[in-house]
UniProtKB/TrEMBL annotation:
It comes from Bacillus timonensis. This is phosphoenolpyruvate--glycerone phosphotransferase. Pathway: Polyol metabolism; glycerol degradation. ADP-binding subunit of the dihydroxyacetone kinase, which is responsible for the phosphoenolpyruvate (PEP)-dependent phosphorylation of dihydroxyacetone. DhaL-ADP is converted to DhaL-ATP via a phosphoryl group transfer from DhaM and transmits it to dihydroxyacetone binds to DhaK. The keyword Kinase applies. InterPro entries: DhaK_L_YcgS (IPR012737), DhaL_dom (IPR004007), DhaL_dom_sf (IPR036117), Dihydroxyacetone_Kinase (IPR050861). GO terms for biological process: glycerol catabolic process. It holds the Pfam family Dak2. One of its GO terms (cellular component) is cytosol.
Length: 215
């Protein structure tokens, strides 16, 4: 399949809407583990991205520039630890698609693997720490394995999102080991991690966009 710069711009717009819709839910999760502001933080970051989508990026066709501007804009708008994580992801992904106005299955796979690796390299957390990594690491492994076998991005990314969902849900049973919530110890068990949840939403939204495009 071919995914264009226009598709990516539409995708990022959809993420803006998802974060607005899910803001209170993400805050509710975070109230049980931290400051209770994760939903607000995500909407602040994505509203800033939306401004760029409506202005500077409105007619942009270079996928590399789109992805890097999204990453830097999110970083500049968000002061919390999540800012550098997503900035690293989108800027790392931008290197794969620099100068391209459309990408094929293999390039899409490389883009999302680079996105996830960028976050992992920045965050230094491990699977089981009850963080964003519990969603994105299994998603990356499923994407790579599935695409190697099928050479079909849509089916591989579907597998990735399913693996990410399983990882996200697994955080309910984990004790937080990193960040403010780690101070809760055993009390952090029983609540789904908000960062793992918003990361899943970002992946799931892309899957929905490419499914519609391919239908």
């Amino acid at each position: 399949m071919k995914v264009t710069s226009e598709d990516f711009l539409y995708y990022f717009k959809q993420v803006v809407e998802v974060m607005e819709t899910e803001r209170d839910y993400l805050c509710e999760l975070d109230r049980k583990l931290g400051d209770g502001d994760h939903g607000v933080t995500m909407t602040i970051g994505w509203r800033a991205v939306n401004e760029k989508l409506n202005n500077e990026l409105a007619n942009e066709t270079d996928l590399g520039k789109i992805s890097s501007v999204v990453g830097m804009t999110f970083l500049n708008a968000v002061g919390s630890s999540v800012g550098p994580l997503y900035a690293s992801g989108f800027i790392n992904g931008a290197k794969i698609v620099k100068g391209k106005s459309e990408v094929n299955d293999a390039e899409l796979t490389e883009y999302w693997l680079a996105f996830i690796n960028g976050i992992k390299d920045r965050g230094k957390a491990q699977v089981g720490d009850k963080t964003i990594i519990d969603t994105i690491d299994p998603a990356a492994k499923a994407l790579e394995t599935s695409f190697t076998q099928s050479q079909d991005f849509l089916s591989a990314f579907n597998d990735a999102v399913l693996a990410g969902e399983k990882g996200m849900k697994s955080t309910k049973d984990l004790i937080s080991k990193i960040g403010r919530s780690s101070r809760l110890g055993e009390r952090s068990r029983g609540v789904q991690d908000p960062g793992a949840t918003s990361a899943y939403m970002i992946l799931e939204t892309f899957l929905k966009v490419v499914k519609v495009k391919n239908s």
